[in-house]
Amino acid sequence: MCGVVAVLGKRNASHLVIEGLKKLEYRGYDSAGIASVSQGLLQKIKSEGKLVNLINKLDRSTKDKLYFDNSIALGHTRWATHGNISLENAHPLTSYNKIAVVHNGIIENYQILKEDLISLGYNFKSQTDTEVLPHLFMKYINLGNDLLDAGRLVLKEIKGAFAFVAMSVDFPDQLFVSRNSSPLAIGLGDKANFVGSDAHSIDHLTQRIIYLEDGDHALVKINNINIFDKNYKKVKRKIINIQAEIGLVTKGGYKHFMEKEIFEQPVVLPQTTSSFVRNNSEITIDLDKLGFKNKKSLIICAAGTSYYAGMIGKYWIEQIADIPVTVDLASEYRYRKPSIFGQSSMLVISQSGESLDTLMALRYGKELGLKTNAIINVEGSTIDREVDYSLYTRVGPEIGVASTKSFTSQLVILFIIAACLGKKFNNLKTLQIQKKCHYMNMLPNAIVKMLELESQIKIIAQNIKNSKSVIFLGRGLLYPLALEGALKLKEISYIHAEGFAAGEMKHGPIALIEDDVPVIMFLLSDGNEDKSISNLQEAYSRGAKIILIADKKCIVKASFAHLKVEIPHFENEFQSLLSPILMSIPAQLLAYYVAKERGTDVDQPRNLAKSVTVE
Ligand code: AGP
Fold this sequence. Notes:
By secondary structure, this protein is α/β, with parallel strands linked by helices.
């Protein structure tokens, strides 16, 4: 989603801004732009599409030194919300070529503000909500306010979730920044300061970071930064030393980040496990911190893939610990009146730690008096900072928009939580706990074996690459995986795909079956496989192309399937308990190879953002 970078006090600031924008590319965007002040003039360049278009435009302007001879610049990658993808709607948005603003989020009351500004003579060139910001700044600066006061007056007028940076030719040594719900970090340099949507976007410039808190605004100058809270009280926010520059994460020889992230799962998942399992046998999660002093039920909130992880978590926690779990889409939880009867604790799951829906659900849970916990990958993210207790997946940056290693690592933590709760509330014996820890240690090798199915999955990918629609089926622990498999495929291949609980087919979805529609089932012999095979048979009889990814026993039973992938042999209990993690691998590989066949932009699929920071 939109990315913001600003540099103040360094020569060639616009170049440094571009370097920062490159690090935000993974978030997903559809246009980009930068603005700088040079010799008293505001310069801006924008382009549609990828950043490379902006860089090419900049290169063509090298003769015009103005674009480079600057020490203040701001830049933006835009993920369209209000207004189509166009140069006019790309940021920075300006007012009379004197004020430039870059913005992430939505100004919800922009329509009424726009009408007021138009009546005052301001001319709008874009369809964006953002354009009210530069004009409001202009209005207040024209009334004699400095940048700080103008910014405060702007804040009084706007509503919504936002993070923005404003710059004016009249104050060429200052940036006004503010955040409300959307993330924003300030980087501290030597006679220079920086702003970015996240710490990573400015870690080539500094490792000293301040995260603004909600409602904060700040005046950033070359030698000092003044931060104020929502009551205009000057505040000090903690300076965090982030790890030395990790620079641009590389693909490590793979064609796409997604491919790399799939194949590195055997290496990174032990990093997840090792934070919570000691001596290969002892779980170190603090249940009191999780809000489980007594047996209570749990509410899990998340979005997208993280939500599906939550669904699997529910199955595990109820099965292993006998604790009731409710799973809710974060975007729904916030806007209904959920009952917290019997609950003491909320668990949110978010790779980025920035999904606004999930953040809002978390805040709502706090308001309701729940103890809040989060499974997150990005340390220092907004959710990490606001939640009571964080459990880190520690799988390194995930760049591909499609979640892969973050999903399996979330599952690892959920499984460990289930085991830990099982010990406390469901009489799980030490030996059983040790076995579960042992299973975690077995996972990397098992995933290596699952990855060896690659060539067989490629054949299936060839087979379904031209399908208009694909159906995924699963039962029990593999039902949420069917949903995840469908999400993965649609996200990156743009093929319409839906996941269903196998038993639900006959209640409606079976109407979708016609000749040659691929029906993909993940199946393991767990005692219920015959039921699922009957569901498959029903689809087969109506002409569907049956694709079965299953263990040997199921493959033999469902010999009618058109295409079969037999998964390697694993110990029974390990295979059935950890089936969602094991079967994630073929689901991910399938989506990846279909997308590759179709030549789509695997890592940055159309319309999608890695960090979804609007509601
Ligand atoms: C997964 O492939 C998606 N890109 C998306 O559904 C994602 O899981 C969702 O937006 C939640 O993101 P989060 O985990 O960073 O909160």
